[in-house]
Amino acid sequence: MNETRTTGAIDEVLQQFEGYRRELCAYAYRMLGSSFEAEDAVQETFTRAWKSYASFEGRASLRSWLYKITTNVCLDMLDGPQRRARPMDLNGPSSPGSPLPPPQPDYVWIEPIPNGLAFGADPAEHATAKDSLRLAFVAAVQHLPATQRAILIMREVLRFSANETADMLTMSPASVNSALQRARATMSKVQPSVGDDYDESDEKQRQLVDGFVAAFEAYDMDALTTLLKNDVALSMPPFDLWISGPSHVADFMLSPGPSACRGSRLVPLAGANALPAFGQYKPGERPGILEPWAVVILELDADGIGGLNFFLDTDRLFPLFGLPPELHG
């Protein structure tokens, strides 16, 4: 970087970078499946971009140049066989009385991302990006080799042209199109054919969410099961078990371990993965104090709730979502 560059010019460059932070974070999250790694990737992108900005010279748009750097950062981070997953990607459903298996490391799991890290203030941007941030889509993308993953997201989510994508990946357009076809074929096999279709403006769906909160806080399993779809799945990362079906969910929630959630309170969040989300606090050992238990994300459509996702890594997730360390009451 030219040492004579003024502080004002430096600030201007950094402000230009910042204007792309959220969309780059959303891109890195789709690639990596972790909001923490996505934030790290964007920070590394800005570091690399700053160091090489003098050689940029505007030969491409700043946006596509930053995406190229972000892609390289993500590909470096994905240099290994491990892919993140959801519990239902790893094994079949458990019976409600199954003992909890040992927890798995955080790098095993698809992690949630707060809407505020991924979306700007433009509602149109939110509407076009939300489907590709859903948990099911992000989990399906992890089945792709890293370069195919980048190509699919660039072409079908971000709508870069084949030529732009080829330039960012130092490939030929023909190679990009061939890899895209392979990626589409894999996605057709691993992505659920019917997923959640949450629309926050839909009154019926808002009533479903309100009904879930009321039933869960009352720990009324009869009321709760009326809101669930027949193929509902309950999962609790970092444990690799999951429960399928309304009656099994109710039995699991009333079993000795999970029943400690009776008396919980759900604190609404601004959303996660473009889905309704809550911070769950449950009674602890100290009288009158509710302790962090989970970030809860609902998957639903107009027909009911199809996914109950309890992410239990509160030490990392509650600060990420701006949740307090305890509640009184």
UniProtKB/TrEMBL annotation:
<feature type="domain" description="RNA polymerase sigma-70 region 2">
    <location>
        <begin position="17"/>
        <end position="79"/>
    </location>
</feature>
<dbReference type="Pfam" id="PF04542">
    <property type="entry name" value="Sigma70_r2"/>
</dbReference>
<dbReference type="InterPro" id="IPR014305">
    <property type="entry name" value="RNA_pol_sigma-G_actinobac"/>
</dbReference>
<dbReference type="GO" id="GO:0006352">
    <property type="term" value="P:DNA-templated transcription initiation"/>
</dbReference>
<comment type="subunit">
    <text>Interacts transiently with the RNA polymerase catalytic core formed by RpoA, RpoB, RpoC and RpoZ (2 alpha, 1 beta, 1 beta' and 1 omega subunit) to form the RNA polymerase holoenzyme that can initiate transcription.</text>
</comment>
<keyword id="KW-0804">Transcription</keyword>
<protein>
    <submittedName>
        <fullName>ECF RNA polymerase sigma factor SigG</fullName>
    </submittedName>
</protein>
<keyword id="KW-0238">DNA-binding</keyword>
<dbReference type="Pfam" id="PF08281">
    <property type="entry name" value="Sigma70_r4_2"/>
</dbReference>
<dbReference type="InterPro" id="IPR007627">
    <property type="entry name" value="RNA_pol_sigma70_r2"/>
</dbReference>
<feature type="domain" description="RNA polymerase sigma factor 70 region 4 type 2">
    <location>
        <begin position="135"/>
        <end position="187"/>
    </location>
</feature>
<keyword id="KW-0805">Transcription regulation</keyword>
<dbReference type="InterPro" id="IPR013325">
    <property type="entry name" value="RNA_pol_sigma_r2"/>
</dbReference>
<dbReference type="GO" id="GO:0003677">
    <property type="term" value="F:DNA binding"/>
</dbReference>
<keyword id="KW-0731">Sigma factor</keyword>
<dbReference type="InterPro" id="IPR052704">
    <property type="entry name" value="ECF_Sigma-70_Domain"/>
</dbReference>
<dbReference type="InterPro" id="IPR013249">
    <property type="entry name" value="RNA_pol_sigma70_r4_t2"/>
</dbReference>
<dbReference type="InterPro" id="IPR014284">
    <property type="entry name" value="RNA_pol_sigma-70_dom"/>
</dbReference>
<comment type="similarity">
    <text>Belongs to the sigma-70 factor family. ECF subfamily.</text>
</comment>
<dbReference type="InterPro" id="IPR032710">
    <property type="entry name" value="NTF2-like_dom_sf"/>
</dbReference>
<dbReference type="InterPro" id="IPR013324">
    <property type="entry name" value="RNA_pol_sigma_r3/r4-like"/>
</dbReference>
<dbReference type="InterPro" id="IPR036388">
    <property type="entry name" value="WH-like_DNA-bd_sf"/>
</dbReference>
<dbReference type="GO" id="GO:0016987">
    <property type="term" value="F:sigma factor activity"/>
</dbReference>
